[in-house]
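We close this part of the discussion by returning to an individual protein. Part of our work consisted of pairing the sequence of a single chain with a tokenised description of its backbone. No coordinates are needed to read the tokens, only the vocabulary itself. The amino acid sequence and the backbone structure tokens for this protein are reproduced below:
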Amino acid sequence: MAEGISLQEQGAIAKEFLVGLLASMQINAEVGIREIDAETIELSVNANPPTELGILVGPRGTTLQALQEVTRTVVQSKSPARTDRILVDVAQYRERRVAALGRFAAQVASEVVETGEERALEPMSAADRKAVHDALTENTAVSTRSEGEDPRRFVVIAPA
């Protein structure tokens, strides 16, 4: 836990910000809070139907990443010390993205094993790179590494 305000208080500040943002955008959605571990909280924005939430996700989650950063900044501005890890998800986008990246990584890994040639993936965010590395952790036929500099950092999948 960060010095200063508790994880629950940080979550409440973040939720208040997100609820206000949604109201100002005239988006009818619910904001839930889930404690992932002692230093991480996730705020989930959901609506039924979720169609109007796409504007909060943006292409490849770029708007969602920005929304998460703004939310963290709001919480940090109200905290006398550092804050804990604050994640924001919209319409289970992150969960679906991790699953899709896992499927993609497995497909590329099998191509790498078949051809014997390593393959560089397109540049990705740190979260997406982590999803690819995690998806292939138990695949002993390949290894993964990140190369390049942000924002053009990418994953290379190579034969083991």
Observations:
- The domain at 96-159 is CATH 3.30.1370.50 (Ribosomal Protein S8; Chain: A, domain 1).
